[in-house]
Amino acid sequence: MGSTGAPHVAQPPSRGRLVAWLVFVLALTALGYAGRVDGSEPPDDIAFRYSYALAALVQYAVMLGILLLIARGHPVRELFAMRRPASWWRAVGLGAAALVAIWIGGAALAPFLDATEEQGLVPDEFDSSRVGAFVAFFVVVTFLAPVVEELTYRGLGFALLAPYGVTVAILLTGVLFGLAHGLLIALPVLTFFGIAVAWLRARTDSIYPPIALHSLFNGTALILSVSGVG
Q1: Per-residue pLDDT tens for 69-117?
Q2: pTM of the shown model
Q3: What's phi and psi for 85, nearest 5 deg?
Q4: CA gap 98, 95 in Å, rounded
Q5: At what angle do helices 50-71 and 131-139 cross, to 10 degrees?
Q6: Looking at CB atoms within 10 Å, which of 49, 72, 101, 193 has the fewest?
Q7: DSSP structure string for 134-182
Q8: 152-98-141-187 Cα dihedral, nearest 10 degrees
């Protein structure tokens, strides 16, 4: 996977911001693995509980607040790459290539790594009696999570790491993204996903294509799962 060079940033971000961001994402990682160590697992019907959607809303709001605090004093739109790609058509093509690579990589690893089962968030079937709660879950997984996670890793994280090299930014944000989920079996799949999306961020110099790809991937996986296809 290549890149177009250093991303567009108006002013070089400070090392203090990089340290703060690293502390933040490493704390997310520690919390994720701590939840696994204590043996707790999400309930089988978590996708049909309003409580999960509400808890996720609070969690992502806190994450976004911390990101904005770290970015304070620097042009936010620049630091988070909130700008249009030079060409949307090119971005769509690159996004399709990244998505195909993710699907192929996931399929190749699936016989050895049951990533979906380990995470335990995607339901195996649809419960038509709790449609409202599922819609709330779908919105969180398909829209809210991709926006905040992409702003965290391919937005702020990528911009802070890019001065050390675009390849470093792609690989490190991918690895940290994978680790933050607190999973072991799924770690290679999540890391590959993170690297592919970071590559898309580098090639398009925009956060919007990664958000769109992440959202499409999550939404498709969820729909296929409840429909009995996935």
Answers
A1: 999 988 899 999 999 999 999 999 999 999 999 999 888 877 666 555 5
A2: 0.89
A3: -65, 155
A4: 5
A5: 20
A6: 72
A7: HHHHHHIIIIIHHHHHHIIIIIIIHHHHGGG-HHHHHHHHHHHHHHHTT
A8: -70
CA distance 16 to 21: 9
Q: Could you tell me the residue ranges of all domains in the chain?
A: 15-226
For residue 12, which of 94, 85, 78 has the smallest C-alpha distance?
78
Residue with tokens 């089988």: 44
Helix/strand/coil for 37: helix
Query: Rounded CA gap, 188 and 172, in Å?
Result: 13
Give the helix ranges, DSSP H, for 41-87. 50-71, 76-79
Q: Which residue has the tokens 């709001």?
A: 61
For residues 188 and 113, the answer to whether their CB atoms sit within 8 Å is yes
